[in-house]
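Sequence in, structure out.
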Amino acid sequence: MIVDQYEFAFMFMATLPGIYLAARKNFIYTENKRYNLFIVRILFTVPLFFIANVLISMITARIFIWLFPKISSFFVGLMGNYAAALVSFIFSLILIFLLQRYVVLPRSLKIETITKKDVKDYDLYYFHPMETMLGGRTYGTKYKIINPNRKPDDLPIRSQLTDLAADFRYLEGEYLMMTTHGEIVVSNQALEILKENDLSGFYTRPVKKDESYRVFSKPDPADNFKYKQLICNHFMPKMSPPTEIVTKKYPLRILVSGNIYYNQQVLSEIADFNQTYEYFGSDYGDPVFVQRFWILTKKARDIFIERFDQTEDDFSPVHLVDEDGNVIENQLSDVSKIL
């Protein structure tokens, strides 16, 4: 069978949504760094969205023929392959737009643009690891929305009711892992390191092992003591200007565009682990994607990098301003050296 240029164009257009999503790391969560590759993600996305694109394009063509038989006879008889390629191209653009707006953007909780000079010379850092694991909701952790009567411009805020559940296969060999819901899980070894260094601002809860994949073997109760969830008990005041908090609608999204700024007075009462006063995320889909950002001191950041195999790219500096709103150039202060 010979494939002409229009059939080739049709098939190529049908692959575009899958290729686009494979390029977005926040759409597919690849927990193992060895498999965090574009070509691996393509194997998941392209076949699925290729089939969806072809089927919907065919259905659209059938509906068009049924509604406009005289016009469609011209296209089917003289320009059938060209019309199919054109329909596929249009549908690909529509599908990519919908996926970007309602799937990719709601999962994009990271700061959009960061200005970095020397990231070692700051008191505070925003922790946003590049590698994450699926959140507790996936494995049965129970949450409750605590603001059901919220205003239209407010995000749904949840409270965790049960111990966090996780798939321990993604935690093997890891000191620390953050979930897509902003929950931090640490191994017992990592927890001991945190305690040895007198890091403050958190307490722990047990992490329950997900057993849904287990078929033949029995669960080991000792597994539920291997990992702990860090619960923050110290919260930052409201961010200071010139922090730009952006609210977008349809769906509602609250994000930070640019750097995070705080008044320098926060250093007098800071803990090593802190969370923002504000909530960020989207009200589309699973509300547990709405979360507070983790703000860590330089001491905590250095331990994460030196002892827990985190990278410098997992942190963005938090800027300080004085009482007049001027950015302080010498960020590393005497206060943070004491902490």
